[in-house]
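Researcher: Please predict.
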Amino acid sequence: MRAVAIVGFLAALLLLAVLEVLARRPGSRVPSLADICAYVMRYEVGPVPVGRIGVFGFWWWLGWHFLAR
């Protein structure tokens, strides 16, 4: 089961790399990862920076599940 999880994560990383290469071609309509992150970070509901809170929560979750031992 561990091997299936590792293969799944590697496939996801490969897919992200392919999408990033496609996004950086001249005239591409695919947004780059930086464009997506900038869009999410700008999202606000009134004075509350919901996008930044969401990104912070994602990084916290990622660190908690993969880095905390």
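Model: The two ends are 20 Å apart (CA to CA).
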